[in-house]
Each structure stands twice: as C-alpha cells, then as structure tokens.
Amino acid sequence: MDIDLHALWDGAVENNPLLEEFSDGETSAYGVYMLRTIALLRGLEVKASALVNLSPKDFERDWQTAVEATEQALTRIKTVNADGFGVISLGWQPYSTLVPVMAAALASAAKAQKPHLAYADIKCWYWSSVFLERYAGSVDSTTYRDAMDLLGRQADSSKRPAIFDEAVKEVLDNSSFGLRWVARNNSVYKGVMNLVAMNGARDFENNDGISFHELEDHHIFPRAFLRDRYGIKDEAVNTILNRTLITSKANRRISRKNPSQYLKDTIPGEHREAILRSHLIGPEAQAAMERDDYEAFLVAREKEIVSVIRKYLEPAR
Question: Which of 90, 260, 282, 295 is a Cys-bridge partner for 304, taking CB atoms 3.0 to 4.6 Å apart?
C-alpha cells in the first residue's frame, strides 16, 4: 500500500487549527512528531531507523489517532487554567519535543485502569520534564522511556514512572532547588512564565488579563534602577525571579522607575495586592518592593514560585 505522507499532513493541518498554528515554521519537526506518536502507540522506539521502517499496516488509522491526540495535547499546552500548561504563545513553549509523549498518553488515558490517575500522571510528568530540563538535547531514548512508563502505568496503576523519583529527589526533597540563577530562555524560565499565566496574571496598569494584550517579558526591578542604585547587572538583574509578563505600554511607563514609585503611580491601589499576587508576588515580596529591597524581594519571590512548582510536582510522591 502506498502512503502519501504529504497528503496526510495537508489534511491534518487543514482540520486541526492548533496543529497548524504550532507547526508554523516547524512543519518537518511536527511531521516527525506524528511518526513518533505512531511509533509510541505501537510500542516502538522513536529513533530515525524505526520511523522509516514503520509498517504500512493500519498506518492511516494510526496516523489519524496520532493527529487527534496531538491536537488534544496542544489544546492542553495552550490552555491557561489549572489543567492546562499556560503556553500563551508559541515563544513560551518550553519544549515541542515532548508533544509525542503527551499525545501517546492522551490517546489512551480515557481507557486507563484509573483514568483520573492517568490524567494526573500526564500533568505531573509534564511539569517534571520542564523543571528537570528533561527534553533538552537528544531525546529519543527519553521519549520512548517516558511514554512506555506512562502507558504502562495506565495498564497497571501499581507501576511508577521513573521520572517521579527524579522529581522527588531533585525538586520536592531538595532544599537546594532554586531559581536564582535561571536567567536565560530555557525550559525552566519559560515554565515559570507559564505558571504566572496560569495564575491569572493581570496587567500592572490596566488590571486586565495579560492574554488579551501584546506582552513583554518585563523586569520587576527595572534594569536601569538596579544599575544606577546598586550597581547590579547581568544575570543578577535578568534572573527569572525578577521577570514577569505585562503589556508593552505598562513596561514603558515603569522602565526606569524604582518599584516603590511605580507601585503607587502605575498599579491601581484598590487592585494592587491582587495584581501582584497574580504574578506570584506574595506579601513578603511586595513589602520588599515597597522599600526597594532587591535582595529581600528575590528571596521572597523564589520561595513563592518554588512552592507553586512543588505543588504541581507533588503527585510524584
């Protein structure tokens, strides 16, 4: 049987808007992800040699299953609520390479021995992968191992995915786990921004949901203020602890002001606490902003964000 992959792909993007959106500019990558998902659903490895030798038997049926499951995965990735993953735009997706694993797990989750556990496992696996930077670099063996672990757990709930033990060791029970020096656009950086979006982040100036606006990755303590007042620069300024998402307009208004000033001038007083909390800036961090104490702010906000990360990883125990 001849299989026209081009025709199958064209049909997939035509009928699945998120697949079309996420694959824009990455058509070849997402085409491979379809094949990887098929391989995983068949219990096969995802190395290139395995993909080129996929059996044509029931291929079109399995392709359709993979496409539908991938659209489900992308829907969850883009959804901004407690059951989604907060990727408000493509630039904030931590990894695209983990999509086949999620798709394969979602394809059969509803028929799992314990469906509620299957969906909880997918969420815990996802956040563990993001904050352990599990899908950086070559991922063939990780993809296969994680998918087999999740699918195996669906069939037998007594089985435990290996990544859960790693999450417990490296994050949940690791008192040294922190974010202070996360200052580049890696999966951890993006994952924190996803959590901010999922927390209902509202714009500093207009108290409106950030998803409705053109956004900028903003310094909470402005770069110019830290340089001029304290001589602080580079990674100490750009740490994820000092970043959040607000509109470009609000960013321009506060770009050189000290926090204690723009808290009064820019953020509406009657909504100030709620707006800051929506950005994972708790009472201690707010108090530090009010007195322009950068070090105290970093300590307080790190505590706040790490507690949220651990909440999402807690099912790994």
Answer: 282
